[in-house]
Design goal:
The complex is a heterodimer of chains A (393) and B (356).
Chain A: H1 2-23, H2 31-44, H3 52-56, H4 62-67, E1 76-80, H5 91-106, E2 109-113, H6 121-130, E3 138-142, H7 147-156, E4 162-165, E5 174-179, H8 181-196, E6 201-202, E7 205-206, E8 212-217, H9 222-238, E9 243-248, H10 255-267, E10 270-276, H11 280-291, E11 294-299, H12 302-305, E12 313-319, H13 321-334, E13 342-345, E14 352-356, H14 366-381
Parallel strand pairs in A: 1-2, 1-3, 3-4, 4-5, 5-13, 8-9, 8-10, 10-11, 11-12
Antiparallel strand pairs in A: 6-7, 12-14
Helix pairs in contact in A: 5-13, 6-7, 8-9, 8-14, 10-11
Chain B: H1 2-12, H2 17-38, H3 43-51, H4 54-79, H5 87-105, H6 108-132, H7 137-160, E1 174-175, E2 190-191, H8 193-211, H9 213-223, H10 225-230, H11 235-259, H12 275-285, H13 290-313, H14 320-324, H15 326-338
Antiparallel strand pairs in B: 1-2
Helix pairs in contact in B: 2-3, 2-15, 4-5, 4-8, 4-9, 4-11, 4-12, 4-13, 5-6, 5-7, 5-11, 5-12, 6-7, 6-11, 8-9, 9-11, 12-13, 13-15
């Protein structure tokens, strides 16, 4: 009997603790966060070219507008990042790059919030939307997990402009930006398929005899499914005989799981693994390095953001989250922000692209590169249609 | 009332429902394995091939490290009468501390040391609150978890500008020539130093608990603190030592977790992601025996490694999200069938030495 009491107690207090945790994480951090956002550049965005100037500015008030040489706009943007947080070397860092670009070009100011839990999205969105000092002209919500919260919050603040990246929220004051991840992933698959069937050796890895490649996903769903579908279709476009192994780790923050998932693939003969798993992907790169094999990064040029893995990152399927964030901020500055619109960024709009890794790009054979380029043109012209659902591959 | 007696009769007899169910499960598993060996081309055959693959064992060992260390820590604390459900928190701070120090000094071993120090300090706080100020152990344990969950990402935010740290070097596997080429078990001889440390810690913990006077004091402090007190041993000091020891062990686990990846990931539930809570289950399942805890940890970690491979090879025609639940479902079943945990009598109770 004693044991039962204790277990129920643990359960009860556990739930109470979780609720408490959700409640006490506080609101968006203002200027302080911005300062550390500036410091972040030094650690993660080493060789990045486009955003360095924006990143060096640590303050967020009027001094910025003057020094950055922009038009000195007084537009204020609130950014709510996805749960991965800054320093993920991919999604959020790239969104930050976009807002920093807007800061340096238009002199806008911005504040950031980094939620740790899905339950905090609503809270942060509301705090930005209801704030009057400063008044935010745009609230940028990064990541598809914010869609549910935003579809509740947006109607409550009809005069506030919102932006959502990676999902569509149907409201008159929300501009939605989505990407054709499957198109970019198709190119990644095309490259992986061509390399695994040829003998390739460069950097810290080499391909093997087996015709196997891998895919590691974060959490199952429509979004990551697009990556998987495009990648598989790209591989199959090279040869139907190539086997694609695919595993979902179930979290975007579990690098140890990502490492084991990738190791299992490499041990089964895979030589190239593509990940769409946020922080979990760090484990994939580590596994590639240990096994002398290759990986393909995602969202951002990860051979730059994760430069210690440069010798195994063949390429990254870059998603220009920065373009989406920058475009929305630009639209607000220029007064042509369109609520209710859905902007789709594919290969054609340069919203997604396959960017070869800094360490290996010169070693990738030119026939692979030219084939990838011609496939890209075929996708843009519509000659190749890329599935967005893995069950249709 | 009547069902109670029926149940009592059944459990007294040779064929308790638990045993029958366990037997059936064992027979089914044995059948599947035999079937797999006999027909290697079938689904069962591919399953057995994965099961007996040396990389599955290697993955199991790596995934076991943080859980096993935390479980050992939990055993010491709880055996001494202090229920430490803050293991998760201790893992989190040591995971961050380890990477931070490794980043600053460039040495993985300094990182490991810093992880242990960070975890031990937090354990000291827990010990002071529970033993000195007689706080409820469960609530204090939860507080430790919540503090760590906020503190580590915050520290990372201050140092690295985001909840995730920079990357640091990792350690290479130590390969013992000859032994490492044995099929399957060769994985035991080609592993990271952390895996060997885990085995060392399990052996040392077993020896300490069963063969030293400190081990007997820890046992007595959890079972009958009054007797220990009467024998002239200071219960408070034994409990302090045990809780601090749990901090040291968790420090090994957390630092090993982050240093084997080379980065601390602090967003969401952090990279520890519930491993401390799994550890509580494994030591309860292992009935406070370090070896038992290691075996149950390896059962869970092994199933976790297995499900990742099963997903990739697409062995069973089951949706991937269901494959991912295999470890949890199996652990619950095994726990229900074989779990016989006897909690130390005085666990969770504050002990105060009688006045002279």
């Amino acid at each position: 009997m004693d044991r039962f009491d204790r277990r129920t107690f643990i359960k009860g207090t556990g739930i109470a603790g979780l609720v408490g945790l959700a409640g006490c994480t506080g609101g968006p951090t203002g200027g302080g966060d911005n300062e550390s956002g500036g410091g972040e550049e030094t650690t993660t965005a080493g060789g990045d070219t486009t955003s360095e100037s924006g990143g060096n500015e640590t303050g967020n008030e009027s001094a910025d507008g003057g020094s950055s040489g922009g038009s000195g706009s007084d537009v204020n943007v609130g950014v709510v990042y996805a749960t991965g947080g800054l320093g993920d070397g991919s999604f959020n860092d790239q969104a930050q790059q976009g807002i920093q670009q807007a800061e340096s070009e238009y002199g806008i100011s911005y504040n950031e919030a980094q939620p740790d839990e899905v339950s905090q999205f609503k809270n942060f969105q509301q705090q930005f939307a209801s704030s009057t000092d400063p008044n935010y002209d745009l609230v940028s919500c990064i990541g598809f997990l914010q869609a549910d919260a935003l579809s509740e919050v947006a109607p409550q603040y009809p005069d506030q402009s919102f932006q959502i990246v990676d999902s569509v929220v149907e409201a008159d004051n929300v501009a939605s930006y989505v990407f054709k991840e499957h198109e970019g992933s198709f190119l990644a698959g095309q490259m992986a398929g061509m390399l695994t069937t040829s003998s390739f050796s460069a950097g810290a890895g080499s391909t093997n005899e087996e015709k196997v490649v891998g895919f590691v996903g974060g959490v199952e769903g429509e979004l990551i499914g697009k990556f998987e579908a495009g990648y598989k279709a790209g591989v199959k476009n090279v040869s139907e005989d190539i086997q694609v192994q695919s595993t979902y780790v179930g979290s975007f923050n579990e690098p140890s799981g990502g490492k084991e998932a990738a190791l299992s693939m490499y041990n089964a003969g895979a030589d190239i693994v593509y990940h769409a798993a946020g922080n979990t992907g760090t484990g994939v790169f580590q596994a590639a390095q240990e096994q002398g094999a290759y990986a393909i990064g995602v969202d951002r040029d990860q051979s730059v953001t994760k430069s210690s893995y440069q010798n195994v990152i063949l390429a990254s399927m870059v998603k220009r989250v920065d373009t989406a964030v920058f475009n929305a901020a630009e639209a607000v500055v220029q007064g042509n922000f369109e609520g209710g619109s859905v902007t789709t960024l594919g290969l054609e709009q340069n919203g997604v692209a396959l960017v070869y890794g800094q360490g290996l790009k010169s070693d990738i054979p030119s026939d692979v590169k030219s084939e990838v380029e011609s496939v890209r043109e075929s996708i843009i012209s519509g000659d190749i249609s890329v599935p967005s659902d893995p069950s249709n591959v | 009332m009547s069902s109670e007696t029926v149940r009592g009769r059944l459990t007294d007899g040779e064929l308790s429902p638990q045993r029958v169910a366990g037997l059936v499960a064992a027979v089914l598993l044995a059948g599947l394995v035999l079937w797999g060996f006999a027909f290697p081309e079938t689904q069962a055959g591919r399953f057995v091939a994965i099961l007996t693959d040396r990389s599955t064992l290697a993955a199991t060992l790596r995934l076991s490290v943080p859980i096993a260390f935390a479980a050992l820590g939990g055993i010491f604390a709880e055996k001494s009468g202090v229920i430490n459900i803050g293991l998760e928190g201790l893992l989190i701070v040591s995971a961050f501390g380890g990477v931070y120090m490794a980043d600053v000094t460039g040495s993985v071993w300094m990182g490991l040391a810093a992880g242990i120090v960070a975890s031990t300090l937090l354990a000291l706080l827990f010990a002071v609150v529970c033993i000195e100020f007689r706080a409820d152990q469960i609530i204090a344990g939860l507080a430790i978890w919540l503090i760590a969950l906020g503190l580590a990402p915050f520290a990372s935010q201050v140092v690295y500008g985001g909840p995730n740290t920079a990357s640091v070097d990792t350690v290479d596997a130590i390969v013992i020539p000859g032994l490492s080429s044995i099929p399957f078990f060769g994985a035991l001889f080609s592993a990271t130093p952390f895996v060997y440390l885990m085995f060392g810690a399990v052996a040392a913990s077993w020896w300490t608990l069963n063969r030293t006077s400190f081990g007997r004091w820890v046992n007595a402090s959890g079972e009958n603190p009054k007797a220990l007190d009467t024998a002239g041993v200071n219960v408070t000091r034994v409990r302090y030592a045990a809780v601090l020891l749990s901090g040291v062990l968790c420090g090994f686990g957390g630092a090993a977790l982050s240093l084997s990846i080379g980065q601390f990931v602090g967003s969401g539930s952090t990279m520890v992601n519930g491993k401390g809570f799994i550890a509580i289950v494994t030591y309860l399942f292992g009935n406070y025996n370090p070896v038992g805890a290691l075996l149950s940890t390896m059962l869970f970690a092994g199933l976790d490694a297995l499900q990742l491979t099963l997903q990739a090879r697409d062995v069973f025609a089951v949706p991937q999200p269901l494959v991912r639940t295999i470890p949890y479902v199996t652990v619950i079943i095994v726990l229900a069938l074989f779990g016989r945990t006897r909690i130390p009598k005085a666990a969770g109770e504050h002990y105060e030495s009688g006045d002279e």
